[in-house]
């Protein structure tokens, strides 16, 4: 089973080497995007790996920003240029398989007609205010810091309360004068899709769907980017909404849940959970093919346990 792994990376190049070496079965290509904030020299060790390419395009990826979608699109474009065949799978550099390559190949061959992505109506994913912020308001990043952003109603289409909030943020320095001036003239947002869908960022698409997805994005890239660059966390909406729209018009596109396991439920820890050596049983009990997240600076033993016990 041929596979194209698209990897979004920003740290720990040795961990990414380990990930690629573990997934490399001779039938896989690996395309790696290195965050523009990272030192590229540290990642050149990846050039020694077979079937692995560090793509030339680099985005300064900021949490919650469209830059993450752009980095993913660069990866997709590079995989298409190099003869994309079989499944295309989006991972982060902090993912790791929790099933053997033999199992992964068998599973994908058995489900060759399916695509794996979480995509539920946006209204079911988030509370009403958050949906309004994502769909109707404009999202502005204030700095590179995680979550340092706000969504604002366009001034001419906002309530008195929303206008007061915008002015308050300007006076307090939360919003820049440039952003405020832009908000004064921005039109009411018109979503690209009448119905939007949301879910986990991580997906795996078969060859037919990947081509349909790629063609649709290229045909509509200007309109898509103009809308989603002002959407908070668009990586959790962009591909999900496109794939459902395509599926509604094509019987060939069948969808099952994402095959990347992420734990967002654990109490009193930073989420998503960064797994350690105490989590082997949890990882052994899920049906997914891959999991995240892992960090060798925090705990490398869990990767050794996965190698020895699960793969």
Provide the CATH architecture of the largest domain. Answer: Alpha-Beta Complex
User: What's the number of domains?
Assistant: 2
Tally of helical segments? 12
Number of strands: 14
Strand order of the largest sheet: 3-2-1-4-11
Estimate what percentage of residues fall within beta strands.
15-25%
CATH superfamily of the largest domain: Spore Coat Polysaccharide Biosynthesis Protein SpsA, Chain A
Mean pLDDT, all residues: 97
The main sheet comes to:
5 strands, mixed
Name of the top-level CATH class of the largest domain: Alpha Beta
The shape, in one word, is: globular
Question: Stretches where pLDDT falls below 50 for ≥5 residues?
Answer: none
Q: Would you give the CATH topology of the largest domain?
A: Spore Coat Polysaccharide Biosynthesis Protein SpsA, Chain A
**Proportion of helical residues:** 25-40%
Alpha-carbon distance between the termini? 18 Å
In angstroms, what is the radius of gyration? 20 Å
- The assigned structural class equals alpha/beta
Encode the helix/strand succession as letters. EHEHEHEEHEEHHEEHHEEHHEEHEH
